Amino acid sequence: MSRHWIAVACAEHARRGRALGIMQACHGKGAPLRRLKAGDGVVYYSPTASLGGKDRLQAFTTIGRVTDERTYQAGMGGSFRPFRRDLRYVEARDAPIAPLLDRLEFTRGKRNWGSAFRFGLVEIGAADFAVIADAMGAAL
Fold first, then answer.
1. pLDDT tens-digit map of 48-61
2. Which H or E run includes 136?
C-alpha cells in the first residue's frame, strides 16, 4: 500500500528536481528519504519561490511518485553530497495552499498549520494527497 508525503523546498529547487527526475529533502539527509517506498506519492510544498527569498509563494508546486527503492548520494560541487530519490513527476500547475486549508485533514482547524512543514518531509493521508493532486490538475 502506497503512502503519501509532502516535501518542503522553494519552488526553484522543486522545479529543478522535477527537471532532473529526482527529489531531495531535509537539507540532503538520507534517513528521511529512506522512509519512502516505490509507488509512494510525493508533492512539494514551496513556501517561497527562491531559496532564502522574501518572495512568499505558499503553494504546492510539483507532484509525482517514487520510482524505485534506491536512495543514493550525488555530488553537487564541493563537499555537498545530498541524498536523493528518483521520482516520476506528472504535469501539474501550482496550487496555492490557502484555498485548501479547510479541506485538508492535516491543516483543518489549525491556526499554525505551517508548523508541520518545519520537518521538511511530512506524511499525509491518501485523501489529502488526492485533494492536492486535484487542485494541481495532476493525473496520478
1. 999 887 889 999 99
2. helix 126-136
